[in-house]
């Protein structure tokens, strides 16, 4: 896979950045637009590069303080027809599906970790769907609640923050989880408290539902399933396979457990509420731990690939650029 880097470069940094781009293994095309940047004054450089090599180039650009002095934009063209691009992908180490652009992961999860009104609305709706499924013994409603729940975003962001030691990301994720779940559970409890006198469901509804017993009966498989879901979710984010996230949402019992706690407390089923709370805790811990383990693994193999990668000979374009600099 080819990605495109658009670099807004101050004039005094332009030659150093261009040199990094030309010498980077896996770079297919480099274009220099002199004076194209108005703010900050300088040049615009675009680079077509194999995704496997993009992270190494971005790290080199970070060492030049380009994000502070200019900017780096990364995009993925839908189609690139170029023999040069094919050769660049072939020369780049590893596979594009296994490559990670860490700034991209941090930015993506950072957006999902914020405590917003839409996040709260989705979580409240999901908890309400779960509560309806619980009191009506409807697995369809519970599965719907799992899909609607937005909690995987903050959980993934928490994993990224812990691995990369980005404590601001950790704090925002914990805030989204620490505020979102109690608010959703409180609204669900209030709705359940009003529903009983209205006759929407009987006071012994929790004694009649056999299809939802798994929610308040946590066990070893609760943690195992949560860990598998957390690993699959993080892999889907890294490899850009969003379709796998639907399976992740359906496999975890975070929102149903939160909904069950709220309903059980209203109906006085405190032992079942405790079991559901334990289910919720196991799922949260399992997802975060497994997602963090996936990130650590990819960091280790990324460092190993960088350590064994040998510098390649400069391309013809790079040699011409060097000759031009010497002539100056």
Tell me about this structure:
The protein is α+β, with helices and mostly antiparallel strands and 328 residues long. It folds into two domains: 2-93 and 311-327, Alpha-Beta Plaits, CATH 3.30.70.120; 104-305. Helix content is 64%, strand content 10%. The chain has 14 helices and four strands. It has a four-stranded antiparallel beta sheet. Strand 2 (27-37) and strand 3 form a beta hairpin. Helix 5 (102-112) crosses helix 8 (152-164). The chain is elongated, with a radius of gyration of 25 Å. The two termini are 37 Å apart. The relative contact order is 0.12.
Q: What is the element layout, followed by pairings?
A:
Elements: E1 2-10, H1 14-23, E2 27-37, E3 42-50, H2 51-63, H3 66-69, E4 71-75, H4 83-91, H5 102-112, H6 117-136, H7 139-148, H8 152-164, H9 167-195, H10 220-238, H11 243-251, H12 254-266, H13 270-308, H14 316-327
Antiparallel strand pairs: 1-3, 1-4, 2-3
Secondary-structure element order, as H and E? EHEEHHEHHHHHHHHHHH
Please tell me the total number of domains: 2
- pLDDT average, as an integer? 84
Strand order within the widest sheet?
2-3-1-4
Evaluate the radius of gyration: 25 Å
A few lines on this structure:
By secondary structure, the protein is of the alpha+beta class.
Main attributes of the structure:
328 residues, alpha+beta, Alpha-Beta Plaits, 2 domains, 4-stranded antiparallel beta sheet, 14 helices, 10% strand, elongated
